Every structure is written in structure tokens, then in C-alpha cells.
Amino acid sequence: MRNATLRQLKVFEAVARHRSFSRAAEELHLTQPAVSTQVRKLEDHAGLPLFEQLGKKIHLTPAGAQMLQSSREIIQKFKEAEEAMAQYKGVSGGQLNVSVISAGDYFFPRLLVEFAQRHPGVTLNFGVCNREELLAQLDANQTDLAVMVRPPLDADMVAEPFAPHPYVIVAAPTHPLAGKKRIPAARVAKEPFVVREKGSDTWNSMQEAFGERIGDVNVGMEIKSTETIKQAVMAGMGVSFLSAHTISRELQARSMVVLDVVGFPLMLNWYVVHRHTKRLPPVAQAFKAFLLADGASLVERALEGPKRR
Fold first, then answer.
1. How far apart are CA 190 and CA 160, in angstroms?
2. What are the residues facing 19 on neighbouring strands?
3. Dihedral angle of Cα 140, 141, 146, 151, to the nearest 10 degrees
């Protein structure tokens, strides 16, 4: 094992965590053959197979389970060393590791640019994923900060709100309910809904909005991409429940409308989240303070910006 590399251990850990070479490749921004090569090299160093395939699924061998435990311990030690060195670099020389749920990628890059302009020399490491993936990153210490709508109810997590986040029901301008006033939620639930996947922040928020009536919602299609959902709605395939922060351009272009449904919008908040025991490097501490102080106004400005142009 003396010739094994940290890169090989990280690739192996990602494959083991996802139980999938393709999902690990997507997370690491590598090709699937590159991931397979790294795992194969690690198996060569170990002299033992680390995975076995049963049907279409891969599983850890006993040796692989031990390697996973050791790999995570080694990766964690390197992470701690990086964080310790970051303490000496301060904010300007540090790397900000932050991930956000997919609804945030409509405005979050502008917040990062603003922060970087205030702190020249900061390196940005920014990821976008769904809620389950975000929680997995926090659990595996793969990100310093996470930005989401529904923080985990976990004593090990610190979650602080920094900006409001409304959710609305949208439709094509030609939809029969467009322009109607005070539409009962029970009425709109009968329309075919194009929804985000179960486990996403948007789906969980939709469950909260409809409460006990969630089972009455006519789910016609489940799609993982918000952009694809918007295209489906604009094409007249149904209505949808979406973050208001994801549809500002479509509303300005009048290619989509917000339905006036009783009980909507659902008003939630954006939260910045990290592990309670996490020793945040200076750059992460500074970014958290930046969000708490200016996040709300910057989110509003980012979403209203196109109106002024």
C-alpha cells in the first residue's frame, strides 16, 4: 500500500459511498473510465479486490469495507491538516468550500463574486446538488458550509437563516387558471403537476405547503432538473411548485405566470449550515458573516437585477 495515493483513496471513497462508478465520476468531475482506473490501481496496491458486482449493483468486499474505513480516516487527517494551514493563511489566502441546493444556483454565484471582490485572493470551491447529497457532504466533511432551505433537525448542525425564500405555483400564461383570483388549493391540486424528485428541498417544501392534502396532488411527471420542469410548464404540460428564486427571468419574459392560490406563496428561509463541531477556517467564518449581514439584500438585488437592465 505504500504507493497508494490520496487521489486513489478519494476516488475509492466516492465510489463506495455512492455504490456507483458513474455517480462518483459525476461528483468528482471525472470520466467513468478514469474513476475505474483509479480504483483498479488501488486494488493493485492492496493486492485484493475491493468491490464485487452482484447483478447490476456493486458491493464492498470485506477488504473493501476495511479500506473504506481507513481511507476516510486518512482523508479526514489531510482535511484537518489543510484546515490547520488555512488558519495561518487567513481570509484572503484561503479556499472557500461551499455547496448549495439547486434552487440557489440562480443567484448564488453573484453572492460568491461579491464576496470574492471584498476579499481578493480567496479561492472558491462551489458545488450544486440536491438536499440529500448536500447532507451527505456535510456528514462526510466534504464542504465547510451548506446553503439550503430545510436544514436538518440535528443537534450536531448549526443552521442560521439569512434570506427569505418564497415558493409559488406556476403555469403557462395560456393555462385556464392563469389570471384567476383566490384559487382553492384543492382545485389546483387536480391539475397535472410537474414536480422535483422526492428528497429534494423543493419536494419537501411542497409536502409542507399542501400538508395532509399532498396525496391529492395530481403528480403527472417527476423531473430532477428545475430547468426541464420550467420548459415543461411553459409548453403546457402542467403546473408546478417551484422556488420563486428560480423563475424571475420567465416572469419578466411573461413566458410563465404565478397562480393566485389560497395559502401561497409558502414563505421559508435560506439557511447557512455547518457541523457544530466543525472548525471553520477564517474564510468560511467570513463568508458566513457576509451571508448573515448582507445575504438578504444581495439575493433580492441579484434576482431583481435583470429588471433594471
1. 36
2. none
3. 50
* CB distance 138 to 101 below 8 Å: no
Total count of residues recorded for the chain: 309
* DSSP alpha helix (H) spans, the chain: 6-18, 21-28, 32-46, 62-89, 108-118, 131-139, 185-188, 201-210, 226-234, 248-252, 282-308
Give CA–CA dist 259/66, Å, rounded: 54
Q: What is the CB neighbour count within 10 angstroms for residue 39? A: 21
Question: Whose CA is closest to 162, among 66, 70, 298, 42?
Answer: 298
Along the 309 residues of the chain, how does pLDDT read in single tens digits?
A: 777 899 999 999 999 999 999 999 998 989 999 999 999 999 999 999 999 988 888 999 999 999 999 999 999 888 878 767 766 566 766 789 999 988 888 889 999 999 999 988 888 999 998 888 898 889 888 899 999 998 988 878 999 999 999 999 999 999 999 999 999 999 999 999 999 998 888 999 999 999 999 999 999 999 999 999 999 999 999 999 999 989 989 999 999 999 999 999 999 999 999 999 888 888 999 999 999 999 999 988 877 744 332
| Cell matching residue 139 | 456528514
Global pTM reads: 0.68
